[in-house]
Amino acid sequence: MEEINSIVSAKKGKIDVTPIATLFRNEVKESVPANMPKPRIVAYLTTDDQGAIDYAKWTKIACNKDGIEFILKKIERVDLEDAIIDANNDDSVHGIMVYYPVFGGMLDAYLQDVVRPDKDVEGMSTTNRFNLYHNIRFLDEKKTKKCVLPCTPLAMVKIIDHLGIYDKSLPFGEHLKGKVVTVVNRSEIVGRPLAAMLANDGAFVYSIDLNGVICFQAGKRQGTIKMSETTVSKEEAIQKSDILILGVPSPKYKVDSALIRDGTVVINFAGCLNVDESVDSKCIMVPAIGKVTIAMLERNLMRLYNNQMQSYTGGAVASTSTATTEAQQ
Amino acid sequence: MEEINSIVSAKKGKIDVTPIATLFRNEVKESVPANMPKPRIVAYLTTDDQGAIDYAKWTKIACNKDGIEFILKKIERVDLEDAIIDANNDDSVHGIMVYYPVFGGMLDAYLQDVVRPDKDVEGMSTTNRFNLYHNIRFLDEKKTKKCVLPCTPLAMVKIIDHLGIYDKSLPFGEHLKGKVVTVVNRSEIVGRPLAAMLANDGAFVYSIDLNGVICFQAGKRQGTIKMSETTVSKEEAIQKSDILILGVPSPKYKVDSALIRDGTVVINFAGCLNVDESVDSKCIMVPAIGKVTIAMLERNLMRLYNNQMQSYTGGAVASTSTATTEAQQ
Prior knowledge:
The first copy, chain A, is an alpha/beta fold. The first copy, chain A, has 10 helices and 11 strands. Chain A has helices spanning 2-11, 18-31, 50-65, 80-88, 106-114, 126-133, 151-162, 191-200, 234-240, 290-313; strands at 13-14, 40-45, 69-74, 95-98, 180-184, 204-209, 212-218, 225-229, 243-246, 265-268, 284-286.
């Protein structure tokens, strides 16, 4: 606790995550092999949503700069499933992504699982998420194909790590021991994987959505997660937190700043701000994380690329140079 | 069309599906082997919802009468995933079911996929649904383990078949050719699989939910489904329909009876009635389908049981005696 407070007083205010993104993008750039097929992402867009179009544009610019081919395809939503299956079967495509929502609801969850897990660059398929929750690191029994983690939660773990909040003097898996985190969002693609990843690193996590509060902490077996019910209210959870993560996709949702303790690390990934900007006078405030998310997308793509190239060359391609990290060892 | 009208005038009024359920339950009863481990379903209940408790009770009574062991386990929702994994690994359990909602939303979709596809007696896992949409009949490459179809939509296909609406003089896969169906519900566990199954049998299907209308029809390759957009409104779709299937889980939702043509087959699976009862004066009206759904659950269980027993005995167990059907050939 004291440790966090000291870091925060040193870095109080708004944090721009560009340097963290640059660090990871440089690693990716160095790891793209010169005399091999170019790593390729195909991304499907089914709407005219300007937010998605802009995000796709930024992603394309970043990828192209770093040696990755990013092909954006506009497509009718009724044709998306067939297109994904074609991309699954196309050896020149190493990663597949989709801008959601497409139909909305459970049909979108189905489509996430049409993407083959070994091309699931966003880490959204049930297989990759199940593996995350159960400490399974490989997609195959021979342990040659490494899993990927969902980009957005992975980006937040990396940001928290680079803010110096992980206590590296503690044993591995306990670097967040004693820290309380609240995550306001329990979606299957961000909030719940994030809660699990932070719990896996030793934190006690309150996971909040419209239905209430659920706790996440490390399970008895290493790498497993224990969920539990609680009588702690949303407000109490926020008050107890060393780290507060906000991801409600509505500008109307604002956490009352008075609930947030001095020295809390506040990370906002909602696209809109879920808290009054003035909290940066007493907190570390990360208002947006998109650049690091794109870096994680690139990083995931290189992992999938290496998995796939290994299958063709029998393991001749060197693995990426990314160092062991909290989240992916 | 004329054919449907003639059937409807012969059977106009409210239809009790008990005889259809009995037919399938008798088949199941005869197929349970005498000197073998008893077929076993484990069902998990996480709520105090009286509807779910009652439904579990009826299912248990039916299963026990037909030679199937049905074990209902009350469990905390936070412990459900571990319990499912234990049941996945327990050779004495042949089928696993869960009463939803548990957490609600996408987390429930995740839990559906924690159930191993070869024990997924309700046919709710992404694997079994993907296989349905893509005409894949077996879970394994050796083609020894047959897939199952989701119970509730399967029950409706069987009811429509037993009402005499399938035209068996037409080639297989076209028995519903020329028929227009509207399904008011596009959930991943009932409405969409049902739309696909009816399209697969030759029908033109309007699939309606809060977001609008989508059409389903047979794809070019046999067994595949083509989705398409439409400008037809919900009301127009209902007016055009030979068969109208209602599944909105709210008593407030009522289709205007004036939209429904004389002679339409109306099937209501919502738990509450989505149309005024008086439509039975001009239609075949199936107000509830639960008994046939339970029969399909038993039928699916026997398929999974035989799949599993085959693995142990190398195929020595006779397959169930159920005849070739529209939906499962």
